[in-house]
Design a protein that fits this description.
The protein is mostly helical. The protein folds into 2 domains: 30 residues; 82 residues, no CATH class. The chain has 3 helices and no strands.
Amino acid sequence: MKGVSLAIETIIYLILAVLVLMVLIGFFLTQAGPAQDQYALEAKRNSLCGAYVTNDFSCAGTGGNPVAAASPSVVQNIATTCAELNRRFGSAYRCTTSSTSGSAALDCIRSCCITCPVRTSSP
């Protein structure tokens, strides 16, 4: 009888160990999700801003608009990515999904792209 109870206890301990391991794995996988999403969005923003800055180094635009040499899809994707960063992580970028043209797009690029020089007022 002693040998049977030892086998049953071993099986119960194995089941408990597997359950605890599954709970721990589930906990760590769900905690890493938001950080990975933010990292992916930041990387996308940086690559898009790099593509824009190659055409407009000072982020000054032309006539209050983004430079024409930059692809319209780059400007649109910057606005979309930064708006998503605002929505999900509370970033302070002046971007909405509709900031894809005109001065709103240029303001979005200036506030979102960390490669753009910061404009300061002269005393």
